[in-house]
Design a protein that fits this description.
With 127 residues, the chain is mostly beta strands. It has no helices and eight strands. It has one domain (23-112): Immunoglobulins (Immunoglobulin-like). The strands form two sheets. The chain has a five-stranded mixed sheet, with no helix packed on it. A three-stranded antiparallel sheet has the order 1-3-6, with no helix packed on it.
């Protein structure tokens, strides 16, 4: 009687929990009004193993997204701060956004509203 063919398949240790780390941007705090420089602070907590990148941008009344800058960050809890020159931006209300990304964690972002410029309209006085 012939021996039947036997096929053996081996699997490595399976991990179905999908190793993902956390990345959180919280407590974004912007000055209520900025005429020349916009100062802001926020908290970043990253538990991953790579480098997190934070992109800071603003969106004005015209709907355009303007990049203000980027900040890298390593693992851990960090109190972040930044200051940007906003003298060239048109006056108006802006949404400031800090968006953090990392290769091993979901995207996180926080926003705040700020008025940029002195809020006065230009006019010509005729006498």
């Amino acid at each position: 009687m012939p021996i039947p063919r036997v096929y053996i398949t081996a699997f490595g240790e399976e991990n179905t929990t999908m190793d993902t780390w956390s990345l959180n941007v919280t407590n974004l705090n912007c000055a209520s009004q900025a005429t020349e420089f916009l100062s802001m602070t926020w908290d970043l907590n990253y538990t991953g193993e790579k480098e997190a990148m934070q992109e800071i941008s603003c969106t004005g009344d015209d709907g355009y997204i303007r990049a203000l800058g980027t900040r890298p960050s390593s693992q851990g809890a960090h109190k972040m701060e930044a200051c940007f020159d906003v003298r060239d931006l048109p006056p108006g209300d802006y949404t400031i956004r800090v968006r953090a990304t990392a290769p091993d964690a979901p995207v996180s972002q926080d926003t705040c509203l700020v008025r940029i410029g002195d809020g006065q309209k230009a006019y010509i006085r005729i006498q």
